[in-house]
Amino acid sequence: MARYSHLLLILGIHFIFISSQVCNDSLVPVILVPGLGGSQLEAQLNKPTVKHSFCNSITNRFFNLWLDVKQLLPVVIDCWIDNIRLNYDDFSNHTYNQPGVKIRVSDFGNPKVVEYLDSKSWFPVEGYLNVLTKAIVDLGYTRSKNLYAAPYDFRKGPSELGNWFEELEELIENAYRNNTSSVILIGHSMGGLLIHKFLINKSQIWKDKYIKAFISLSTPFGGSMKALKVFASGDDLGVFLLRPAILREVLSTMPSMAYLLPVKKIWGDEILVTTNEKNYTLDDLEQFFIDIGNPTGWKMYLNEREYATELGPPGVEVRCFYGEGSATIKRLIYGSNGFRRSPLLEFEDGDGTASLRSLEYCKKWITQQKERVQTKVFDEIDHMGVIQDNLALESIVRAVRELSNCE
Ligand SMILES: *[C@@H]1O[C@H](CO)[C@@H](O)[C@H](O)[C@H]1NC(C)=O
Ligand SMILES: *[C@@H]1O[C@H](CO)[C@@H](O)[C@H](O)[C@H]1NC(C)=O
Ligand SMILES: *[C@@H]1O[C@H](CO)[C@@H](O)[C@H](O)[C@H]1NC(C)=O
Ligand SMILES: *[C@@H]1O[C@H](CO)[C@@H](O)[C@H](O)[C@H]1NC(C)=O
Ligand SMILES: *[C@@H]1O[C@H](CO)[C@@H](O)[C@H](O)[C@H]1NC(C)=O
Ligand SMILES: *[C@H]1O[C@H](CO)[C@@H](O)[C@H](O)[C@H]1NC(C)=O
């Protein structure tokens, strides 16, 4: 899950100095796959109704919907919520936009759209993969020539991202052809999950030809309790402008949140949520969704579950980077007021967003595949720190150099 640093942090700037002697033509193409919230989304409106009279109902052109901080100010945010939320169709089991709202992901392939989320504005502040991208560019990479990104509509889960998987395949094959070299896929958070999903659905022959390696950054292979909290009480996911309750209204309409729920293989029969009346484990998830008043959440979960449970080895070289040493939600404890009050939280080790046991699942592959699997754990570097902290960035860049035979 992407989390956006505080504005001041971004303006305060993380300077990084990575001793990067520029490499030559041997550079292996790199494709970045962002996490949840890490892609720009654009909207065009022709709406029959709006929340307030000051909300736009018609726009001639597409405008930046995610993430333009101006739209997230109090009251104005109601317009935004009404534009970005999804509805669920019981017959097709698909989600769809609000009436009269078109949403698209801009500039597939271009890393710009994952570097800054509001790069269309006059002064981009919401940096995301900007620091990582810069470090890779400093190695000698050129945007859209051998450094790409595969943004996606992160509101959706894999069950509705079929086209995206095809576009990614095409991008990989084109990058391969243009550079006569197999490709490094770098995924952060949910981006890592989608890469894994993509790879296990590809033949070994295809992977041997096109994929050099998968670099996983903070990927919660077994899901995250934060997703469960989003449905029950909301969570700001670190977006400091947004209150959890408001984000709940939006996020709980998104199948991607259902996709990110904890998986049985890791959580087993553990009690995840406690109320005065009941203990909920993953076996009680349907009841949980009913009790929180979101039966649609259960349907979304059913659609995405099969994509989340296959955790086999990806069959390509893996570099798995993640943080530990941050308190991470283990259990939600509600009192006599049911789900209306914020829960007490019980914590375990992790990166603040994903539990260690979910992040370190990639270790299992060491013995399950013949391709190399290397893991690196960063102490007290959190979910976002892995793509921003100097120590982690140095390791990532070193991995790219090694894989490019550029020592
Ligand atoms: C939608 O999901 C329901 C319940 O899982 C299932 O019975 C139904 O066949 C699905 N419909 C479609 C069109 O896939
Ligand atoms: C490959 O090269 C062609 C011709 O220069 C260019 O049009 C295309 O965008 C490139 N594709 C990628 C993925 O680099
Ligand atoms: C991969 O997924 C596509 C659709 O998403 C499917 O048509 C195809 O059969 C799958 N391939 C494998 C090898 O599972
Ligand atoms: C929930 O589980 C705990 C620990 O197993 C137990 O002490 C408690 O009585 C249970 N609560 C309910 C409502 O079943
Ligand atoms: C440059 O490329 C040549 C041949 O492809 C290779 O032998 C050499 O190590 C490369 N140098 C650097 C700095 O990458
Ligand atoms: C791969 O892309 C880089 C960056 O644009 C370019 O310099 C290099 O010539 C390309 N390699 C091949 C074999 O086309």
UniProtKB/TrEMBL annotation:
Annotated GO MF terms: O-acyltransferase activity
Keyword ATP-binding set for record: no
InterPro entries from the UniProt entry: AB_hydrolase_fold, LACT/PDAT_acylTrfase
UniProt keyword Signal present: yes
Signal sequence residues: 1-20
SUPFAM superfamilies per record: alpha/beta-Hydrolases
Keywords of the record: Signal
Gene Ontology BP term (one): lipid metabolic process
PANTHER family registered for this protein in UniProt: LECITHIN-CHOLESTEROL ACYLTRANSFERASE-RELATED
Name of the protein in question: Uncharacterized protein
Species classification: Eukaryota, Metazoa, Ecdysozoa, Arthropoda, Hexapoda
